Amino acid sequence: MPFSLSQLEHPIVQAPLGGGPSTPALAAAVSEAGGLGFLAAGYRTPDAVRSDIAELRGLTARPFGLNIFVPGPASGDAAALERYAAALRDEADRLGVELGEPRYDDDGWEDKLALARREAVPVVAFTFGCPDASVVTQLQAAGCAAWVTVTTPAEAVAAADAGADALIVQGVEAGGHRGSYDGEAPGDIGLLALLQLVRAVTDRPLVATGGIATGLGVAAVLAGGAAAAQLGTAFMCAPEAGTSEAHRRAIRGGARTALTRAFTGRTARGIENRFMREHEGEAPHAYPEVNNLTARLRAAARERGDGDAFHLWAGQAHPLAEELPAGELVRKLADEAREALRSAGGALAHRPEGRRQDP
Amino acid sequence: MPFSLSQLEHPIVQAPLGGGPSTPALAAAVSEAGGLGFLAAGYRTPDAVRSDIAELRGLTARPFGLNIFVPGPASGDAAALERYAAALRDEADRLGVELGEPRYDDDGWEDKLALARREAVPVVAFTFGCPDASVVTQLQAAGCAAWVTVTTPAEAVAAADAGADALIVQGVEAGGHRGSYDGEAPGDIGLLALLQLVRAVTDRPLVATGGIATGLGVAAVLAGGAAAAQLGTAFMCAPEAGTSEAHRRAIRGGARTALTRAFTGRTARGIENRFMREHEGEAPHAYPEVNNLTARLRAAARERGDGDAFHLWAGQAHPLAEELPAGELVRKLADEAREALRSAGGALAHRPEGRRQDP
To answer: Which residue of chain B comes nearest to A154, CA vs CA?
Structure first.
């Protein structure tokens, strides 16, 4: 039987957290606790993903998800990429690395789809676009549920039309990349407005994500019509996460976040740092070309613990992230959410009409 | 006894909707239905506000609110204002009006405070800043509850320290002006993230606003810890509202919104139109100077029904606004919210642990 959200003990989904923070241990801990853990296929070779799945399955027999990036068009603007490379040369020199080749790739799209089918991954989620209906059908035939990340009502309609089993509704509060289909139109709709707008155009189950960090946030999206809440930053300080020390420090701090394409060529939210401030204006919309251009530079900065020179992805509620083991966090969030719903429902139900008194 | 949110039959507050949409009839309809109606003191003379209050009190004996703008510093950059005036000359010529004087004023601050105290207005809300603790104390002594609009956790701490009875927590989704204390730092935190961040720093009652348009939205913020939901755009198509026809048409349409300071010199969210696209880059941060500069121009465009040349304030969920009498809308929102909370609470409560099965 394909995965359904109602199977989860707790309606809590871990965001895929590509690029380091996501680990099989983190996903396994979330799934073992009754939530849904996620692996990130993005930036990894199909072989590495296969090995992640094997490791995860060694840790839990529970359902989990795998997130795959939908490839977009190549940039085609070689001159803009060259200009950006020139602008970043000093950064690379300072860190003692070469810039990468700003090349296009499809991140192993077909191989990763084939792997997901072969492994019958319980949930396969997509970001950066809507896969063709045939891709969705093939996954479903292989026993996978297909989820699509959406950031506008129009994207939600397209995903529902393609047969998606559920939609990940991503508000502008979310850390990391905006999941928008069109990288040049990242959009800006807040989660709560988007949930209502999407609910008005589709009856697919919705997984809400963006700025959810506490049980109150989980309760809010469930009351707002979501079948589950997806949290990313909230899990990034867990011991099971692969988050670097500099990144953990920044998350626990109070600095503001901003949207930027300076690191990867696609709009993403991170804690504002010097690199963002200095290079945002120069970066072209060109993913994955810019990602490949800056990858070594960012890795070097991360190794040095230089939080001013790599991407500190984080959602707007990042100061609320706790340093708890992931399973404990899942249970705590679910308990708090239950209590919040009980309390809000009770307060409304017990508001007697007879209490309406003139002032 | 001073007003408390628990007095309301329905935890639904109408946003003040300054500049036309707000009318005593609208506020009265909302209060009569068991919500809390609001009058806008902004842009109006103290005499006009007094007459609004009298008219409202002729229609309902229920509590209501009055919103007052906290005056900020004068711009001091006369050259920037002159440049912007020059940039707008063609717009004014086209509409056959003179531009206004880009002068500073405090919008009748002391007179309006005195009026609110004299009238013992049940709720006095503030936007654009935090009044001094002495202002809050004097209002409370006069029988008024004092609410302060906040857009960041730091603003929430300041408002709580000043003694505010409740905080209006405004997400970036909200239509109209950002309530930020510092006009040059309007901020960008989404409602759901902000609710959690503010709850972490104060236990004051919270009124959530920004992109709430349906009972699901109301339920979401109540579950997220708010004592009430404040809706603006959702009421703008009500027959009791003073919203112009061109504005109503735009609200019912699907166009995107954006933040702009082109109309007033303070950042506000409106449905994107030509004026915003053409002038956003030129407009200085200078409120109320720019507001006074453009007032006649915008009034003329509104009279002509030219929706490309005046401010179409609207929140991100504007396409969901319904053309219902305001009282009917209050009851519908409350009923839907109750049902949504019941349904979300039930779904969580009945998720049996025994259901955790391996896939």
So the answer is: B254
Domain-wise residue ranges, chain A: 9-73+106-251+317-343
CB pairs under 8 A between A and B: 226
- CA-nearest residue to B320 within chain A is A197
Residue B189: list chain A partners with CB under 8 A: 173, 211, 316
According to CATH, the topology of domain B8-241+320-343 is TIM Barrel (3.20.20)
Give the pLDDT confidence of A28-42 residue by residue, as tens digits: 999 999 999 999 999
CB contact under 8 A, B351 and A192: no
Q: Strands across the sheet with B123-127, in order? A: B12-14, B228-231, B206-209, B166-170, B145-150, B123-127, B64-69, B37-40
CATH number for the segment(s) A9-73+106-251+317-343 = 3.20.20.70
pTM: 0.96
Question: B345 to each of A203, A213, A327, how far by Cα in Å?
Answer: 19, 19, 22
Asked if A102 contacts A290 with a C-beta cutoff of 8 angstroms, the reply is yes
What are the pLDDT digits (tens) for A90-120?
999 999 999 999 999 999 999 999 999 999 9
Reading the block at residue A160, the tokens are 């529902």
Shortest CA distance from A212: residue in chain B: B193
Interchain contact, B190 vs A11, CB within 8 Å: no
Instruction: Tell me which amino acid residue A22 is.
Output: S
Partner-chain contact B355 A9, CB within 8 Å: yes
Q: At what angle do helices B215-223 and A326-349 cross, to 10 degrees?
A: 120
Dump strand ranges (E) for B34-151. 37-40, 64-69, 123-127, 145-150
Predicted ipTM of the assembly: 0.96
What are B243's two structure tokens?
């919203």
Alpha-carbon gap, residue A334 to A12, rounded angstroms:
8
Q: Quick check: B219 and A337 CB within 8 A?
A: no
